[in-house]
Design goal:
- This protein is an alpha+beta fold and about 240 residues long.
- It has two domains: about 60 residues, no CATH class; about 140 residues, Jelly Rolls (Sandwich).
- It is about 20% helix and about 25% strand.
- It has three helices and 15 strands.
- The strands form five sheets. It has a six-stranded antiparallel beta sheet, with helices on one face. Strands 11-10-13 form a three-stranded antiparallel beta sheet, with no helix packed on it. It has a two-stranded antiparallel sheet with strand order 1-2.
- It is globular, with a radius of gyration of 25 Å.
- The chain starts with 6 loop residues before the first helix and ends with a strand.
- The relative contact order is 0.12.
């Protein structure tokens, strides 16, 4: 090599090779068969990647490896919702010491952080505080029209992903797409979590019906429970 390149050129070449290798390991670029490279972590994700293939880029919480492809490069921002030339003061701050919006018996306190109505149907976000009082969780179910996500804030929340139960600690997150079976409970004491529905739906109506049933002690028939669930896109399994 020294017969064709001086020391500075060799050093630059070594540096370039090291940068390419580092980018490949990080998933910024991915090496294809034949030696060419394609964009990696800065292109949309794809799921047909085998573990260990093309570096180590992956989605948080995924057990497998992921890469991005040109086919999904059409992902773009949604259409504009605000058309003004200047921004406006419209944010709303929720303080941690705020009183709950709903009590479900003596076991659960629900805070309506952002309802589907207040977000224009984009999402609904709720804080769910559960006491150490023994009780029953949500029961396994799925939704047809919306995803549901859980983020644990405090304590231990038992989360069911349709396959197994996991004791989730603060900072743990579960995403459930439409049709995904899921459930939650807090068998280990007091706990708190955020629950996100997207797109937004009138879930507070469902919560309030539940609170009324629990508070009144009213007993529902199986058909009445099914009617309640179906009105609110909840299908028990």
């Amino acid at each position: 090599m020294r017969a064709h390149y001086d020391d500075d050129q060799i050093a630059a070449l070594v540096c370039l090779v090291a940068m390419v290798n580092a980018a490949n390991r990080l998933g910024v670029i991915v090496r294809q068969q034949g030696g060419s490279y394609e964009p990696g972590m800065f292109a949309p994700w794809r799921t047909d990647r085998q573990p260990g293939q093309y570096g180590s880029a992956r989605r948080r919480g995924s057990a497998g490896r992921w890469e991005r492809t040109k086919q999904e490069a059409g992902m773009s921002y949604p259409k504009e919702l605000f058309h003004g030339d200047k921004g406006q003061v419209s944010g709303r701050l929720w303080k941690n010491e705020s009183e709950p919006d709903l009590l479900v018996g003596t076991r659960s306190k629900v805070h309506y952080l952002a309802t589907g109505e207040s977000t224009g149907g984009q999402y609904g976000l709720y804080r769910w505080d559960m006491s150490s009082e023994p009780g029953r969780g949500s029961g396994a179910h799925f939704h047809r029209t919306m995803s549901e996500s859980f983020f644990v804030l405090d304590g231990t929340v038992a989360l069911y992903d349709g396959d197994r139960w996991t004791d989730a600690a603060p900072g743990d997150f579960l995403f459930v797409p439409p049709g995904g079976i899921h459930a939650f409970d807090n068998p280990h004491g007091a706990a708190s979590m955020l629950v996100l529905f997207a797109p937004g739906a009138p879930r507070e109506s469902y919560f309030e019906e539940l609170a009324d049933i629990v508070g009144s002690g009213r007993q529902l028939s199986e058909q009445e429970w099914n009617d309640l669930y179906h009105r609110h896109d909840q299908y028990m399994v």
